From TrEMBL:
Pfam families registered for this protein in UniProt: HTH_1, LysR_substrate
Name of the protein this chain belongs to: LysR family transcriptional regulator
InterPro entries assigned to the protein according to its UniProt record, in alphabetical order: LysR-type_TF_proteobact-type, LysR_HTH_N, LysR_subst-bd, WH-like_DNA-bd_sf, WH_DNA-bd_sf
PROSITE patterns hit by this protein: HTH_LYSR (PS50931)
UniProt family annotation: Belongs to the LysR transcriptional regulatory family.
BP GO annotations: DNA-templated transcription
Domain of life, source organism: Bacteria
PANTHER family: HTH-TYPE TRANSCRIPTIONAL REGULATOR, TRANSCRIPTIONAL REGULATORY PROTEIN
Domain HTH lysR-type per the UniProt entry, residue ranges: 1-58
GO molecular function ontology, one term from the record: sequence-specific DNA binding
Gene3D superfamilies xref list: 3.40.190.290, Winged helix-like DNA-binding domain superfamily/Winged helix DNA-binding domain (1.10.10.10)
Coiled-coil region list: none
Protein keywords: DNA-binding, Transcription, Transcription regulation
């Protein structure tokens, strides 16, 4: 089986679109389509089904996927052993993360890593859901809980903290908050209840607050609601230094501690460049978290 055909197969399996796969491969979408058709003809099986949503793997395609990934890892390892890789990290690495981490923590961390590794390209995928590493949606992911199933390796990165917060403008225009019971007199900002994808994100239930007046599945949208004085909500401590005019509320009465985990597919532990990147990323996130939370003390 031709490795170049496997590259095209992997790109379409990950991108689920001829156009996006073509962009990644620097090929015309029509060429991608022809290559997939040739591969399917050679194998005598249908690898993808096409719909308005894009291309999805068939059962046959899903069975081929882990073998294609293993071949990709072998080729990457061989390239390094042959000295084709530079002393620094290079190539493309995709990191999945919940959007709070992706918006307020990863950009400065990744920028520093790429400054030290000019040949490295990093893509941050911010999605309000759990990433499927078996389908290669990302090379590695940061999660707020440790998955219990799947062929995954899980490493705790660090704890982080969250508190209630509001803009000083909002607090000046509304009744004072001296105890948690006072929160019921205020407009609450938070997740859309039925779109919370991990129980670790169900912050408001710990306060006994059921009504979310302004909701979003995006932490960034919630943060901007708060920043513009629309109400109050639970905010990551590491996000607070990025906006002026925000104040924590009752920090001595309400505080949450959560954890970030670095999640990888077990097969990728044999790829040295991913191991090196994961080690650097782990240390850099811990360092940045400590620095940002330290500004609030």
């Amino acid at each position: 089986m031709d490795w170049d055909d496997m590259r095209v197969f992997l790109a379409l399996a990950r991108m689920e679109s001829l156009g996006r796969a073509g962009q990644q491969l620097r090929l015309d979408p029509a060429t991608v389509g022809r290559r997939i058709a040739r591969l399917e003809e050679g194998l005598g099986r249908r690898l993808f089904t096409r719909s308005h949503q894009g291309y999805a793997l068939t059962d046959e395609g899903a069975r081929l996927l882990p073998h294609a990934v293993a071949a990709e890892n072998t080729m990457a390892a061989a390239a390094q052993e042959a000295g084709e890789a530079s002393t620094g990290l290079s190539g493309q690495i995709r990191v999945g993360a919940p959007d709070g981490c992706a918006n307020y923590l990863l950009p400065q961390v990744i920028a520093t890593i790429c400054e030290a590794n000019p040949a490295l390209d990093v893509q941050i995928i911010a999605l309000p859901r759990v990433f499927n590493l078996s389908r290669r949606e990302a090379d590695m992911a940061i999660g707020v809980s440790a998955p219990q199933t799947g062929r995954l390796s899980v490493q705790k990165i660090s704890d982080y903290h969250l508190h209630l917060a509001a803009s000083t403008d909002y607090l000046s225009r509304h009744p004072p908050i001296t105890q948690l019971a006072d929160l019921r007199q205020h407009r609450i900002i938070g997740y859309i209840p039925d779109m919370i994808f991990d129980s670790e994100l169900d912050y408001l239930s710990e306060l006994g607050l059921e009504r979310v007046a302004l909701g979003s599945n995006s932490v960034a949208v919630q943060f901007n609601f708060i920043r513009h004085g629309a109400g109050l909500g639970v905010v990551h401590d590491f996000a607070l230094p990025s906006a002026q005019g925000l104040a924590r509320i009752l920090p001595d009465q309400f505080s949450l501690k959560r954890s970030f985990y670095l999640i990888r597919h077990l097969d990728d532990r044999r790829v040295s460049r991913l191991n090196r990147f994961a080690e650097i990323l782990h240390k850099a996130i811990r360092k940045e978290l400590t620095a940002l939370e330290g500004q609030l003390q």
